[in-house]
Amino acid sequence: MNDFSIHRFLDLAGGVKIDDLDWDLCARIGVSDAEARILRYMGDTESHTILYMRDLLAGHSTRDPDVVNFLSAWVYEELCHGRAITKLLDVCGRPEAPTHYTQTTESASVREFIEAALSHALAYATPRFVAVHMTWGAINEATAAAAYQNLEKRTANPVLATLLNRMARQERRHMAFYYHQARKRMEGEPRTQALVRFAIKRFWTLVGSGVAGSDNLAYTAAHLFPDAAARAPLEAAERQIRELPGLEWFDMLTQQTAAAAASWARAHGEADFRTNDAEARAALAQASA
Question: Low-confidence residues of the chain, pLDDT below 70?
């Protein structure tokens, strides 16, 4: 992966563009129940990104101007992703309850709070821990991009597809920054590599599960990544992560996703989008274009 230019990133930074989308067409076509649930999961994850700033922008990371500048723009772009998803669901007749954000925040897992406390403390204890945050971020951003990409391929709503494509491109730009920072901090640093390896193996889990819920995570995995072919974008992300110093072993992304999808299938039977419904909406999309 090429070097990351923080100046170019900041020049291009901004909320995902939505003012040119055809919201009337979006409303006419709508979203399926499966899409609505998946989008709510994604929106909850994006809207709560601000909560992770207390861990990312702490201790030694605050002394690096590139990290500070990036995170300032990153959290805004992620917030705008959440707002865009909420708007789309509202337009499609699936509004969010007024108390949804608060309820989602309050239902965050105990593991989430424990990890946040440990992360915050270690951010002050050693400058090496910044590499953990950067590696963690690279994995999560690549996961989000892959999820948006797969939902874009499946949806019959062209407005949703356009929005997903735009958000995925921003997630890949985020991933590029995290990846560059992780590589820079781990090259020639075996102790840093060991710390990153321990933290990822011991604590990393699929993004969103702590806030949006493990059941919703399993549902999303079963629908978007049900088999090896669907998990190809995740495998591509893993190959990139394995190029980081000390992470040649990394395969947790596909393993955890496959396990989550399998758990849903065991509990609820085979899960997939409703083909007939998707075909009907695709025809409507063509007629309305």
Answer: 1-2, 54, 58-60, 98-126, 208-213, 269-289
**This prediction's pTM:** 0.86
Alpha-carbon gap, residue 49 to 212, rounded angstroms: 12
3-class SS of residue 115: helix
Cα separation, 229 vs 16, in Å, equals 29
- CA quadruple 82, 163, 139, 186: dihedral sign: negative
What gap in Å lies between CA 200 and CA 222, rounded to an integer? 23
Q: Write the secondary structure of 161-200 as one string of H (helix), E (strand) and C (coil).
A: HHHHHHHHHHHHHHHHHHHHHHHHHHCCCHHHHHHHHHHH
- For the domain spanning 20-288, the CATH number is 1.20.1260
N residues, the chain: 289
Contact 218, 208 (CB under 8 A): no
How many CB atoms are located within 10 Å of the residue 123 CB?
22
Q: Which are the contacts of 267, defined by CB distance < 8 A and separation ≥ 6?
A: 218
pLDDT in tens, 59-97: 667 788 999 999 999 999 999 999 999 999 999 999 987
Tokens of 96: 């969010």
List all residues 6 or more positions away from 2 whose beta carbon is below 8 Å from its beta carbon. none
Return the structure tokens found at 59: 């201790």
Residue boundaries of the structural domains of the chain:
20-288
Distance separating alpha carbons of residues 187 and 193, to the nearest angstrom = 8
